[in-house]
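Re: Re: ligand-bound prediction request (bumping)

Still looking for help on this. To restate: I need the protein modeled with iron/sulfur cluster bound, output as structure tokens. Inputs repeated here so nobody has to scroll up.
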Amino acid sequence: MKKHWYEYLWVVSLVYLILGFFNILFAWLGLLCFSIPLLISIFGGDKAYCNKYCGRGQLLEILGEKYGLSQRKISPKILRTKWFRYGFLVFFMSMFLLMIWNTYLVFAGASLKEVVTLMWVFKLPWWWSNTSIVSNWVAQFAFGFYSVMLTSTILGIVSMFLFKPRSWCVYCPMGTMTQAICQLKHKKDNG
Ligand code: SF4
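Reply:
Sorry for the wait, this slipped through. Here it is.
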């Protein structure tokens, strides 16, 4: 059966991660992955992004199913509970706001930190990126945003490996947010 164009969006996710190794400034493109799902759920009222267009979800599926990297075990019940999913969303968004704050500090005159922070703790030097063509705060945002994207990818891959291929989707903050938006929208439409 002929494949649809959107079934290849996993390539975009992969290329995005690779580009960050060459120049961290490409991290800015990740804002599309933040805004498009939210816009689809706000205006479309459905989870079309997760069901069709999410390159990361497709990538995890391919790695887990096609390449057999997943143990295909049921994820622990705790991951699927509401409090864990929303708790993780709150934590994730707090870290995101902290990243915005750090960007602001650089904008206000603090020095640029050329590191990518993995799992919010481990700082990897990333000094080979040429960021001299942009303001320091633009570069700082890129380092922070790429850290977020890389960290969530690692969590996705570990979850894929340990459990079912798309286990990350169970607690993915974007999935939780779009689901909440769709539920609110349906409540409003039916209420
Ligand atoms: S839950 Fe997250 S990773 Fe999974 S398909 Fe939706 S946006 Fe993509």
